[in-house]
Amino acid sequence: MTVLLLEDEYPAAERLQRLLLQAAPEARVLAVLDSVSSAVYWLSTNPAPDLILSDIQLADGLSLEIFDQLIVRSPVIFTTAYDAYAIRAFKANSVDYLLKPVKLAELQAALAKLREWRAVPEAASTPPAAESAERLERLLDALPRPDRQYKTRFLVRSGEQLLPVAANQVAWFQSRHETTTLATADNRRFVVDYTLEQLENLLDPAQFFRLNRQFIAQLPAVQRLHPHFNGKLLLDLHPAPSEEVLVSREKAAAVKSWLEG
Length: 261
What we know:
The structure is a single chain. The chain is α/β, with parallel strands linked by helices and 261 residues long. It is built from 8 helices and 17 strands. It has helices at residues 10-23, 36-45, 64-69, 86-90, 104-118, 133-142, 196-202, 249-260, and strands spanning 2-6, 28-33, 51-55, 57-58, 61-62, 76-80, 94-99, 153-158, 161-166, 170-176, 179-184, 189-192, 208-210, 215-218, 222-227, 233-237, 245-247. Helix 1 crosses helix 5 (104-118).
């Protein structure tokens, strides 16, 4: 089974490849791509893979845009947190829709569903309807609503204690080595049990922004912006993280718009 992997976060891509080899040892990953543009080019110049394993949010946009630009014959397993793109995902050759962090058993079940579908000759031209009524209902329940309440505090561990940290005290979140760290405005650091994808759905987008694969920052934490090579932005955050915070050229305009309000 040949697989095209679309994922813009390196740790997540590495983890998915490990899970895939456990779930289907015969699988061969043809390429790991992090953007819509690279996926469109690859799919336009290579034979269709047996499966596309794709995050919805890529470096330069939504992977769903690929299916607006190309006729893609390959079935797709989408991976991401519950979000407003869930229903669109099911219309794009979807075999299944897995919530991050993806669990081995769920990936195995999705691959089993794909094998069952392929075993029926007349089904080969039409991917299976992945959602049952119950699953679709859960997805609909998870879609944003006008009266949505965003997360206002986090319970973090400090030694043997659990401490509440208000969301407005958070400066930024960083994902590194599959661990998410919360940094407060007064430079305290705590590990939290959320991925950045989950946090994107829990935090108020007027106050928090996903800067890149590793960082989500709150408005007051962004101190300065510096033009960087090839249209990127270099951001100064307070408190300062241990590494540079770069914003891609594709996201630069959105970050400026968010900061301007």
